[in-house]
């Protein structure tokens, strides 16, 4: 799933029926690995929150790994002296990687 080998598909017509019958907010739990077009269609059908933690965790880890590989001896993920090159790279690289996978 994380490597894109499998994509889950959603029954968006059924989601719309449930939204109509329930008349309340709907949350999609376990959205990781869901087909991107289905995820967008599910939002249009009534999903208000989609949990997709696996993709975010993988992107975060890859961003952090990349930052650490560029500065392998770094042990402080922040800079306490603005005159030195900032070490914020570790903290900012991971969230930037998350932005790349956002739907």
Strand order of the largest sheet: 1-2
Share of residues in helices = 40-55%
Q: How would you classify the helix and strand content by structural class?
A: mainly alpha
Distance between the termini: 16 Å
Q: Could you give the order of the helices and strands?
A: HEHEHH
Query: Structurally, how many domains make up the residues?
Result: 2
Radius of gyration, CA atoms, in whole angstroms: 19 Å
Q: Could you name the ranges where pLDDT drops below 50 across 5 or more consecutive residues?
A: none
- Percentage of β-strand residues: 5-15%
Indicate the mean pLDDT.
Answer: 78
Approximate shape: elongated
User: Can you count the helices?
Assistant: 4
Number of extended strands: 2
Summarize the biggest pleated sheet: 2 strands, parallel
Detailed description of the structure:
The protein has 103 residues and is mainly α. The protein folds into two domains: 1-51, no CATH class; 53-103, no CATH class. It contains four helices and two strands. Strands 1-2 form a two-stranded parallel sheet. It is elongated.
What's this entry about, in short?
The protein is mainly alpha-helical and 103 residues long. It is 50% helix and 7% strand.
Write the layout of secondary structure elements.
Blueprint: H1 12-22, E1 26-28, H2 36-45, E2 47-50, H3 53-70, H4 89-101
Features:
103 residues; mainly alpha; 2 domains; two-stranded parallel ribbon
């Amino acid at each position: 799933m994380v490597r894109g080998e499998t994509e889950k598909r959603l029954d968006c017509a059924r989601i719309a029926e449930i939204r109509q019958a329930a008349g309340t907010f709907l949350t999609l739990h376990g959205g990781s690995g869901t087909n991107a077009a289905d995820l967008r269609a599910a939002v249009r059908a009534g999903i208000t929150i989609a949990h997709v933690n696996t993709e975010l965790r993988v992107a975060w880890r890859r961003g952090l790994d990349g930052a650490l590989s560029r500065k392998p001896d770094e042990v402080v993920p922040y800079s306490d002296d603005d005159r030195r090159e900032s070490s914020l790279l570790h903290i900012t690289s991971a969230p930037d990687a998350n932005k790349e996978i956002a739907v």
